[in-house]
Amino acid sequence: MVKLDASKLSLRELNTSLKKACVLGEEIHIANPGARHNMAVCILSKCRITFDGSVGYYCASMLDGPDVLVNGNAGWGFAEHLYSGTVRLTQNASLAVAASIKGGEVVIEGDAGARAGIGIKGGLLAIGGNAGYLTGFIAQKGRIIICGNVGDAVGDSMYESLIYVGGKVASVGTDSRVTDVTADETKWLGETTERLKLKTRKGTSWKKVESMKTLYHFDKLKLKDRHVV
Amino acid sequence: MVHSSSQLWAKHIMDDIHVKAQLGRYPLRGFSTFQRVPHFDELVFLSTGLTRVPLEGYKEKCNTRTVIGSRFAKEPLILETPIYISGMSFGALSRSAKAALGKGASKVGTATCTGDGGQCEDERKFSDKLIYQILPSRYGFNPRHMLGAQALEVLVGQGAKPGSGGLLMGKKISAVIAEQRDLPEGIDQRSPTRHPDWFGPDDLSIKIEQLREATDGRIPIHIKLAACRVRDDVKIAAKIGADAIVIDGMQGGTGASPDVMLDHTAIPTMASVTAAREALEEIGLYGKVSLIISGGIRNGADAAKALALGADAVAIGQAALIALNCNKHIPGVTDYPKEVGVEAGYCRYCDTGKCPVGITTQDPKLEARLDPDEAGDRVANFLNAMTMEMALIARSVGKSDVHSLEPEDLAALTMEASLMTKVPLAGTDYRPWENGKKSHGGKKCI
């Protein structure tokens, strides 16, 4: 195991040390992260990284391969652009967690701020607590699980993503609607939350938010009636 | 004198209303603004006489090599000409068009830029120097592609539609483009205009640090801005760590934009250059942060004037597409009236995907009309010609480096151009921007 003390390294030194250790597939433990921004950015190999404390903006972003655990809270853009691997946060995430992820799994044990899962293009974002305003905004593919409540405008202008909510939905966004989950989806939700060790309330009645697809086509005219304008 | 027809309700105004009444939405089009706005034609160079000695126009060496982004990057972008190909998406453009641009640019030692929608593999294959754009949509974003780029460009805005996102209509969202962008096939894609993970300058400064960490500080990071509040935006972009700033004026081209944005937003390219240069001078970063200008650059003269006003380089989009064959009638191949409803030379229907010359389409039959090798040669020829024009002008004003061109080499033909660029009106030394200071004839300017 490689042990790094973030308080004694510049950001450049920390990330350089991390990348070197990750290429060797090492297990890395980072003490005293001090909520600094941009730690563990763009690591593209399999490895295991643990932060013992809170992290700032864009921590564990642009990853393809690593398994990351953060024992603390996270700032904006936590785990954004994840390609593959897992990123887990034991407390709360700020704005735009898992923004634009393409694959892998992002697990937030606490709450998530506004725009959680904005523009995701695949993968899974699972939130143990509540999620804020505009969760799943313009989400394209992939799934979002929110075990608690979700704020206003959930799933606004969404494409093919699906959002599952265990608690209350404050309001849906433009072009999204709340529907029932299927038996298969209920089974998958149970298995997934158990696998990810996320607590759900007894008798949780899952709801699904999906796109109504009325924004898919800008032109209201039928194709044959369109002129070149 | 009374006009014989209404000037308020002119034919084109009525046509516009008829179209909107049919569509129920704002019309879209490709190309660029139809407004007649002050442009580089309103400036001329003051070539040498007895006050300066020219260099031999066709013989003496004139440097065109351009270094972009040396402020922080360990490996700045080095171009053999101060002209590169601006960001145009794979999706808006066909694969063959992207390949041709890459081939043409590489032949003259310059760069291309990905545009929206991620990296086109053919462009990467042929473009020796690729600028990877980071856009609000993040369509096709791939960290491995980013690491393979020679520069990054964070797109904040574009001159053709500042404050609004890209558009790619359903006919161009083919199966390939849909997969690359993770979108359903055939939808009318309207890209977001705001980045998902930052909103303002404070956040963007952290984002820039993230990109620098991701790339180990190796390659330059550009910030591209639409030319609107140029002075403030440039100062902010420089302050938050840009290696280079790209200013895209209102004449900037597009594959699809609402008419209303094309014609009624942003300021002319020419006006933005002086504003950007002065902004950098005011904060002591002119010459340290590279300044790149785009939007309606059509020839070497436009490019030379942009450099004289303060740019380090220019980026071209529409001109490069015209070099590919845009709006060219090819006997026995194209039938513009039948295909897009107008003669060659008047087409601006890039948004429809019906491009008669295979550039702005995803239709394989139309794309087959563009041979990437031949088209690449045309782009290389055009870039060469532009570079030669710039060097010719530089020599004529006595400069052995195109980057030595300066505002004093210019005269303005109109008051508008003079006021926008702070270049005196031709034949005068009238400087109204110097309030109360010495002006023409030593008299005080009121």
Question: What is the structure about, briefly put?
Answer:
Chain A is an alpha/beta fold and 229 residues long. Chain A has helices spanning 11-23, 183-195, and strands at residues 2-5, 27-31, 48-52, 64-70, 84-89, 105-108, 121-127, 141-146, 162-165, 176-180, 207-211. Chain A has an 11-stranded mixed β-sheet, covered by helices on one side.
Number of domains as seen in the coordinates of chain B: 1
Amount of helix of chain A: 10-25%
Span from first to last CA of chain B?
A: 35 Å
Helix-strand category of chain B: alpha/beta
> What's the CATH first level of chain B?
Alpha Beta
CATH topology of chain B: TIM Barrel
- In CATH, the architecture of chain B is Alpha-Beta Barrel
Explain what this protein looks like in three dimensions.
The complex is a heterodimer of chains A (about 230) and B (about 450). Helices cover about 10% and strands about 25% of the residues of chain A. Chain A has about 230 residues and is α/β, with parallel strands linked by helices. Mean pLDDT of chain A is about 95; it is low at about 225-229. Chain B is α/β, with parallel strands linked by helices. Chain B has helices spanning about 10-25, 95-105, 120-125, 145, 175-180, 200-215, 230-240, 260-265, 270-280, 300-310, 320-325, 335-340, 365, 370-395, 415-420; strands at about 30, 45, 65-70, 75-80, 85, 110-115, 130-135, 150-155, 165-170, 190, 220-225, 245-250, 255-260, 290-295, 315, 410. In chain B, strand 6 (about 110-115), helix 3 (about 120-125) and strand 7 (about 130-135) form a beta-alpha-beta unit. The two termini of chain B are about 35 Å apart. The interface between A and B is large, with 46 and 45 residues.
